[in-house]
Design goal:
It contains three helices and 16 strands. It has 274 residues and is of the alpha+beta class. Strands 2, 4, 5, 7, 8, 10, 13 and 14 form an eight-stranded mixed beta sheet that branches. A five-stranded mixed beta sheet has the order 9-16-15-11-12. A hairpin with a 5-residue loop joins strand 7 and strand 8. The longest helix is centred in the last third of the chain and has 58 residues. The radius of gyration is 45 Å and the shape is elongated.
């Protein structure tokens, strides 16, 4: 029995020794909120394990410029200009026998932008308006509106009388409009994304063309061809009588010349006979 208790005591000591050596990372700041710049710092403590290097991750991807092969238990990352594209989940990683890491969230308000600020659609066809968002965290709610004549915004409800279809993911939203009507559907549409840090919106101008709009260029070419053919026909019509008159004039002159020649030859014969 004494041996068993001795073995248990040995295991407890081993567990405590390893527990005390468990690495701990102190990150400062723990979170960055709506700032233009920041210095992220991580300090590895409570471990006797050798450090084989460190680096930083942004949304799971290695930041190449942050790689280090030194044994330092300290690492930092300077964000000189925080934009909607640089917000995200940063993680400092220390390379031990088993890598350890600590997250630092850099949060920025959402920035919504229309994929195209001007869209054209054909009457009775379907068109799709698209907006995307940058920032961290991404919007958790999306909304669509149509600007009225008085400037107010009218909310668009998904699947309204099978007219509208809204599809959204955290970083993207689309509004499909069925059976476009020239008078009712043209105008300005507004997309809005909302996150825990606020909301952002952008505007899209939709123009609806008549189905005949695509035919006008072809009709214009046809009209030009008809006008050209007409001009050529009139020109040829007027030129033909002039050519006939010229042919008549050029045909009479040789006849007169031959008659004079024959008359002269006859006189010469008469003289010779005398």
């Amino acid at each position: 029995m004494g041996r068993v208790w001795g073995f248990i005591a040995l295991l407890m000591c081993f567990y405590r020794a390893n527990a005390s050596a468990a690495p701990n990372i102190i990150a400062e700041p723990f979170e960055v909120y709506n700032q233009t710049s920041a210095l992220l710092r991580c300090n590895l403590t409570e471990t006797t394990l050798p450090v084989q290097g460190s680096h930083w991750l942004l949304n799971g991807k290695v930041i190449e410029s942050s790689k280090s092969t030194g044994p330092s238990p300290y690492t930092s990352l300077s964000l000189d200009k925080i934009t909607t594209h640089s917000g995200g989940k940063y993680e400092c990683v220390f390379l031990l026998d088993q890598p350890v890491k600590q997250a630092v969230e850099v949060k920025t308000p959402p920035h919504v932008i229309a994929y195209k600020h001007s869209e054209n659609g054909d009457e009775n066809d379907k068109t799709v308006l698209t907006c995307v968002s940058n920032g961290y965290p991404l919007p958790n709610d999306w909304f669509w509106f149509k600007t009225q004549a008085d400037g107010t915004l009218e909310a668009i409800v998904n699947n309204t009388a099978e007219k509208y279809e809204i599809k959204s993911t955290p970083n993207k939203t689309t509004l499909a409009i069925m059976a476009l009507n020239i008078e009712l559907d043209k105008g300005e549409y507004v997309c809005s994304g909302v996150s825990e840090l606020g909301d952002s919106r952008d505007r899209i101008q939709l123009r609806v063309r008549s189905r005949l709009a695509a035919v006008w260029p072809f009709l214009g070419i046809v009209v030009e061809v008809i006008i050209l053919v007409t001009i050529i026909f009139i020109y040829e019509k007027r030129r033909k009588p002039d050519e006939i008159q010229d042919d008549d004039d050029s045909g009479s002159a040789p006849l007169k010349s031959n008659s004079d020649t024959n008359h002269k030859e006859k006189n010469v014969r008469q003289r010779n006979s005398n």
